[in-house]
Known about the structure:
heterotrimer, B: about 300 residues, mainly alpha, MetI-like fold, two-stranded antiparallel sheet, globular, C: about 280 residues, about 0% strand, flat
Amino acid sequence: xxxxxxxxxxxxxxxxxxxxxxxxxxxxxxxxxxxxxxxxxxxxxxxxxxxxxxxxxxxxxxxxxxxxxxxxxxxxxxxxxxxxxxxxxxxxxxxxxxxxxxxxxxxxxxxxxxxxxxxxxxxxxxxxxxxxxxxxxxxxxxxxxxxxxxxxxxxxxxxxxxxxxxxxxxxxxxxxxxxxxxxxxxxxxxxxxxxxxxxxxxxxxxxxxxxxxxxxxxxxxxxxxxxxxxxxxxxxxxxxxxxxxxxxxxxxxxxxxxxxxxxxxxxxxxxxxxxxxxxxxxxxxxxxxxxxxxxxxxxxxxxxxxxxxxxxxxxxxxxxxxxxxxxxxxxxxxxxxxxxxxxxxxxxxxxxxxxxxxxxxxxxxxxxxxxxxxxxx
Amino acid sequence: xxxxxxxxxxxxxxxxxxxxxxxxxxxxxxxxxxxxxxxxxxxxxxxxxxxxxxxxxxxxxxxxxxxxxxxxxxxxxxxxxxxxxxxxxxxxxxxxxxxxxxxxxxxxxxxxxxxxxxxxxxxxxxxxxxxxxxxxxxxxxxxxxxxxxxxxxxxxxxxxxxxxxxxxxxxxxxxxxxxxxxxxxxxxxxxxxxxxxxxxxxxxxxxxxxxxxxxxxxxxxxxxxxxxxxxxxxxxxxxxxxxxxxxxxxxxxxxxxxxxxxxxxxxxxxxxxxxxxxxxxxxxxxxxxxxxxxxxxxxxxxxxxx
Amino acid sequence: xxxxxxxxxxxxxxxxxxxxxxxxxxxxxxxxxxxxxxxxxxxxxxxxxxxxxxxxxxxxxxxxxxxxxxxxxxxxxxxxxxxxxxxxxxxxxxxxxxxxxxxxxxxxxxxxxxxxxxxxxxxxxxxxxxxxxxxxxxxxxxxxxxxxxxxxxxxxxxxxxxxxxxxxxxxxxxxxxxxxxxxxxxxxxxxxxxxxxxxxxxxxxxxxxxxxxxxxxxxxxxxxxxxxxxxxxxxxxxxxxxxxxxxxxxxxxxxxxxxxxxxxxxxxxxxxxxxxxxxxxxxx
Lengths: 377, 306, 284
């Protein structure tokens, strides 16, 4: 008797599961979140985690307006983004630094034309987790002290050199070792940060250098931790007292942010104003999107700019797309529409996520030209 | 050979095909890095990727191997007493209802997805271990070499080993239980009739299933070497080789998870990762094979089928 | 003198017993803790989104809303279903072969192999399918993920089905063969019917394993956060979502991960309970 009951229950469960599956399948065929083959278009991208919250917010806003377009973006690091782009796995890549010369040539050989253009501006913040320091205070660090910490020469938070810069809280600085959290994956954010360090310190340049993946001296001392992606670094910082690390400004919620010394000698925290100030100060000519941006050393030109209130470590994040004839006609058009929206509507205040700064109009123009190319072909 | 046998023999062959293909694919994709670096691939601990100059790349997996072996050894050391006790409890002490309850619990432990173990390990266990185990020990014994450093997030070799140990308990218990119940009653009766207490009887009977204990150890070790998700979330993912179990490290499996994505950006990185996977697979296979052979050979001693 | 010695032995006996019981409780304690914690946090997350949790998509990272995880649910469903469709026939026929022709070399090898494959590092399967399926196809896909899961499922189903078939009493086998039917008919109509409970158990174990496995689909499923893209497009999966989201620092995505973990845990436990009702002894 009981056995039959059990069989009945099992049978019922299976039927329920199959019905649920049927409902989901029905959802696929054209309801609010579904995708209809033929009329729906999917654009795939991946890459940097630096702009990820902003990109996902854009995707969310854009796809809820345009129901037949689906856009997927995965934050896997600029390095993988660029590599996936070259290997043809994604339609566009999000990358903090532009493609390096050899990778750029490889891509051009494969796709004929390759376009790179900025989509958003942001800053690399130095975040820290020191429970003793009040939330209202921003730890001041000079570029030389920062480099010395990262080279392992300054070991404790209450080192005299740090105390010197922060007279107001000397008694609060604890005698604890500084733990440094860095990226474990191939990261554009790392490239931006290490390029900055190389600019301000010849010692750093010669011993460690810059790149998407570097050998951090602190790893060997045991005071270095690796985490995946900007989110990983932020989450590690939050759960590790007395740690510090570098993340995009958007990821610093709940953490302290360093006031970094800029070129003029002022200690500036990354805010919308200080980033905008830096953007204004940088005088350069960004090249046309289909050129090899690596040759122009963009990163070195925008880091550590002059200006009283400029924040030194600012950066653009870019999209990298292929020449129009590499895409299906519908995809090219959809991509062009998306890019255009991102660079016009998307730069408006309501769509900008906290921690990012809209591009000045003359810079947004660069990408708009690409959208035209994708349409016109 | 009848037609049925011929037709159905296709399917077991698939199994063999898959298994051997995996090995072959791994070996084929590791050859470049092994040619380039030779034995130093295993003994070196530098992991240097270079975007601009492929000649500068050098990949040594010593750090990851150390982490894998260290976590596996620790995990097995923790699993053994726990699973032994559970097995003894189930066989000797537990009334029938309790036995069924324990059986279901162990089944659930075995089937619980590893990612859930990992999430628990990362968000709940790691901070608890840090606050209640690591910090007291480091404060008391910080002067010794082994306990001098620790991972501030609680994610370290020890935490990973702890999670692995918990995950392996059901399997080890099952092996030990099976072996224990297979001991012929004659022995038990004989020992009791000599006047031994229960404890003494258990100890003697345990001595009889030594092979099974070794098999359980080998199997736990092998599984611990191969586990990925739970370890990646709890081991700390840092290129650090240290005697201290409280320091964040890398295992081969978590190295694969973290570095595979960007491996194709660099020239030799993907080969290095396949090489690391191959080494880990070899360790895992040898241990599992040893464990299974021991277990079956023991069963034959007592005349029971495998 | 003898009495004291006897007392010592009895005390040792008691102490030992207490240690055994203590360690046993210690062994199963984590499971309860895990279950309770995941249930609490998961339910909190699901309560925030209510029905939208099962039918919506994840909200942008950092936003105050949670959204839902239906792309992951449908992804898991499709990949596991496909894996079952491919894996069950292969496993069953393999186990039949092993039982029917135990003396052959193929059987002996496969028997050992199946046991070994259950303890196999699943990430290697992911690497393998990546090279063999994903790279030629140019994209990770639900199909590739299903293939990975098939490799995971086959050993489990094979071993359990083998046990089920083996437990058919010899008298039944003799009687079945003596009816004069060809071997295939005997096996498929009679034996599978007698062992149906065990076979169902084996399928359930395989499905439970496939549902929860992360490492094997890490490189083969791709990234599908917002929708389901068909058999040859990227697919989401519940364990993948948990793995990715829990490592981020976005509060709402972490909550989604807990909710998904809760669903996964409950499904797995239900399968085990059903299993236990079907059969007494389960080989995991």
